[in-house]
Here is the input.
Amino acid sequence: MKKGLVWILVGLVILILPAALLSGYQTIGPNYQWNYEVHSHILNAYYANSPELMISELNSCEEGMRNLGLTAELYGAWLPWEQTPDIRMDYQYNHIDAIINRTKAVIEWRNQTYTKNGTAPETLGDVYNEKMDNLRGFLVEDGWSDWISYRAFFVHGYLWLVIWNDIVSWGVYLVGFIILVVGLVSLKKGFSGFRKKGSP
Here is the structure.
């Protein structure tokens, strides 16, 4: 019975400890770094109440990507057969630039549409809000617009974490689960033997 408890404890340690340690490390380490330099600006752009602020935040987002060393030729994948043009950093930059250009078009439309004293028909205000919502939609279309930079940052700065999350962790958790099951079976047998010894 004691042996079963030991196996159970070992299994739980294998299942919980690596996940907890690496999750904590990612949160205060690389995840924070990427969020600070890149994703926080995407969030700010999404919640911006003016196209000028949105453009400023998107420019800061691109600057943050460059601060992290994410050059145009880098891929957001580490396996050779996954390194395709749609997951390359040059596509990431082009995508953000396209949203910036769309935002500039909204500014141009607003400046041409609204009168010089700042008044305009109420319906134009509705159209303006709709255009801003469309811009926000581009930022979250098929996921947040900075997702390639997230993968590229980890692949080229923390590849060991990517390999752990994609492959190694599954093997470790499988071993921990098997050990846990062995411990439970052993514990069950121990209880059965204890009952037999104690029966009249």
In short: Confidence is low (pLDDT under 50) at residues 193-200. The chain is about 80% helix and 0% strand. The helical segments are 2-28, 30-46, 51-67, 89-113, 122-139, 147-157, 159-198. The radius of gyration is 27 Å.
